[in-house]
């Protein structure tokens, strides 16, 4: 079992797809650290040119989180989160194994299962 932390920025979606293609059952991708529900709602005005990098990071986060959720709904991933601190979580996607056309995975005991 391999654990990889994804850097959310330019190229993150391609990195996610590469991980998905190469991962084995049980491999874990940490796709965000923070408070996903809050972080996805941050709005950086288009007129704020000094925060372009932050706007791009939030846009990338939203696209990535939507894609991870869709892949979990398709049965490819098991989504979990682990509390690291107050309002700080590690959001994980664990690759599920396929058994005769259906998916199966065991969630780790210390994680909260989201899907």
Describe the protein.
The protein is α+β, with helices and mostly antiparallel strands and 115 residues long. It has helices at residues 12-22, 36-39, 52-73; strands spanning 3-5, 28-34, 77-85, 88-95, 97-99, 102-104, 112-113. Strand 3 and strand 4 form a beta hairpin. It is globular, with a radius of gyration of 15 Å.
Task: Looking at this protein, list some descriptive labels.
115 residues; alpha+beta; five-stranded mixed beta sheet; two-stranded antiparallel ribbon
Short recap of the structure:
With 115 residues, the chain is of the alpha+beta class. It has helices at residues 12-22, 36-39, 52-73, and strands spanning 3-5, 28-34, 77-85, 88-95, 97-99, 102-104, 112-113. A hairpin with a 2-residue loop joins β3 and β4.
Main sheet properties: 5 strands, mixed
Q: Report how far apart the termini are.
A: 20 Å
Strand order of the largest sheet: 1-2-4-3-7
Total count of helical runs of at least 4 residues: 3
Global structural class:
alpha+beta
Shape verdict? globular
Annotate the secondary structure layout:
Elements: E1 3-5, H1 12-22, E2 28-34, H2 36-39, H3 52-73, E3 77-85, E4 88-95, E5 97-99, E6 102-104, E7 112-113
Parallel strand pairs: 1-2
Antiparallel strand pairs: 2-4, 3-4, 3-7, 5-6
């Amino acid at each position: 079992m391999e654990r990889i932390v994804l850097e959310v920025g330019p190229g993150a979606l391609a990195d996610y797809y590469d991980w998905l293609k190469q991962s084995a059952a049980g491999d874990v991708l940490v796709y965000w650290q923070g408070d996903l529900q809050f972080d996805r709602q941050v709005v950086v005005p288009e007129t704020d040119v000094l925060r372009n990098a932050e706007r791009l990071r939030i846009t990338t986060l939203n696209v990535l989180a939507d894609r991870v959720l869709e892949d979990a709904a398709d049965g490819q991933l098991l989504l979990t989160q682990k509390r690291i601190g107050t309002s700080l979580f590690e959001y994980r996607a664990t690759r599920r194994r396929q058994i005769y056309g259906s998916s199966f995975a065991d969630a780790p005991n210390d994680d909260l299962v989201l899907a």
